[in-house]
Design a protein that fits this description.
Alpha-Beta Plaits, five-stranded antiparallel β-sheet, 4 domains, alpha+beta, four-stranded antiparallel β-sheet, disordered C terminus, elongated, single chain, 16 helices, about 425 residues
Length: about 425
């Protein structure tokens, strides 16, 4: 059963690394192509790529027949379209050169070998809405933009076209510059970058350290933070991981976000805002409609997790959900687990990085994610509700001793998170 419609522009050969790109190419001075037509220069049909338009000064020439017979001049700019491998053949033609970000491809004057990679623009990248020319992309990041892939054609020259979420750029530069761009969380880089070789000789030792840390926390031989930090220290001490590699893997933005939201949770607890919002929600929905309250928290968390990260959405809603459970006199773990499950339902939009990876290459539309994600979200909600009903988390009546103990542990955990070390 097909969930999404078959689109004409979705060709099977356009896989990762084989999708069609558009590139700005300029005819260099003293080129032997000057005075020859595209047809005579074998730049039309049969070359593996096609010329979409030609720009000569302020004049723009389109149309297959007109372009095939027009004589080339020095400085002509050609918008060419083709597969990655075919467009890269242009680098071997001395008469043509890429002109993507208003700078011709410089020869490699460094010691590091250049590499060609593909990068998809992430949804929260500050580059969205800016052109390569205004960003001074090459000077800032040290990478040459050879071509761009977009579901629709680029309306202007590539250097002046505003970048969109999901655009795939064909980039050339050193491995160091590519890795620096990837660490900046601007692009998701794939294809062409040589990854560091894995130290497989220490893999069994690393697995044992990880297992010991998990077992120590599971059987309460040590607190979870102590067990995990001890495992990390052993990884460094036994050289399973270098300090530089560990530092590169730290998501500083996520740490700052979680720290700020934990402070928000502590403020909501200390000021009574969480308790007040819980009381207002109970007054609107009704104390008898506990499944309706669970549904409200599920919908609120799903709505917040689309533009936000799932951790941020959960930390915002969790204090209110816990206070609601306490106000009703039931185990708040049911509300907390519903919030945790809902925070993972972030596939209604392509804003999640995992969804964005396939958004551009797959030529999906924004509505495709909603069309497939909505039934899946409803299914997850139904399963979660049935599980909570099965385990009796939301049954009416006074809480049992087990539920009372659960409430105490939940409040203690919430307070410890909110008032943790700065």
């Amino acid at each position: 059963m097909r969930l999404l419609p078959q689109r004409d522009n979705q060709k099977p050969e356009e896989k990762i690394g084989e999708r069609k790109y558009q590139a700005d190419v300029v005819v260099v001075p003293d080129s032997p192509l000057v005075g020859r037509s595209l047809k005579d220069a074998k730049l039309a049909d049969g070359s593996g790529f096609s010329v979409v338009k030609l720009k000569r000064g302020s004049e723009i020439i389109r149309g297959h027949k007109r372009l095939a017979d027009i004589e080339l001049k020095a400085g002509d700019e050609l918008l060419m379209e083709g597969l990655r491998a075919d467009l890269l053949k242009i680098k071997d033609i001395e008469s043509l050169d890429f002109k993507a970000d208003v700078h011709l491809a410089d020869p490699d004057d460094g010691k590091d070998e250049t590499t060609i990679v593909e990068g998809v623009l992430l949804p929260r990248s500050p580059l969205i809405g800016n052109s390569l020319r205004s960003l001074e992309f090459k000077e800032r990041y040290g990478l040459q933009v050879l071509a761009i892939h977009r579901a629709g054609r680029v309306p202007k020259s590539i250097s002046s076209a505003r970048l969109r979420m999901g655009d795939v750029l064909l980039l050339q530069g050193t491995s160091a510059d590519v890795k620096a761009l990837e660490r900046g969380n601007l692009f998701n880089i794939f294809g062409g970058v040589e990854r560091s070789r894995l130290n497989r000789s220490r893999a069994p030792l690393a697995a044992c350290i990880f297992a010991l840390a998990i077992l120590a926390a599971t059987f309460k031989l040590a607190a979870l933070p102590v067990a995990m930090l001890s495992g990390a220290f052993l990884m460094l001490a036994t050289r399973c991981l270098s300090p530089e590699e560990a530092y590169r893997q730290v998501e500083w933005k996520a740490l700052i976000l979680i720290g700020a939201l934990l402070s928000l949770g502590a403020a909501m607890e200390a000021s009574g805002v969480g308790k007040y919002l819980a009381q207002q929600l109970i007054a609107i929905v009704g104390a008898e409609s506990r499944y309706a309250l669970l549904t409200c928290f599920f919908l609120l968390t799903v709505a917040l997790t689309q533009p936000m990260s799932n951790q941020a959405a959960a930390l915002v809603v969790l204090p209110i959900a816990i206070q609601t459970g306490l106000q009703l006199g039931v185990d708040p773990r049911a509300f907390a687990m519903m919030v945790a499950v809902a925070a993972s339902c972030s596939y209604l939009t392509p804003l999640e990085p995992a969804c964005l990876v396939v958004y551009g290459p797959g030529k999906y539309q924004f509505s495709d994610f909603f069309r497939v994600g909505m039934p899946l979200t409803v299914l997850i909600y139904a399963i979660a509700s049935c599980l909570y009903r099965w385990f009796g988390r939301c049954e009416g009546g006074s809480p049992s001793a087990r539920s009372g103990q659960g409430c105490g542990r939940m409040v203690q955990c919430s307070n410890s998170l909110s008032s943790g070390p700065a």
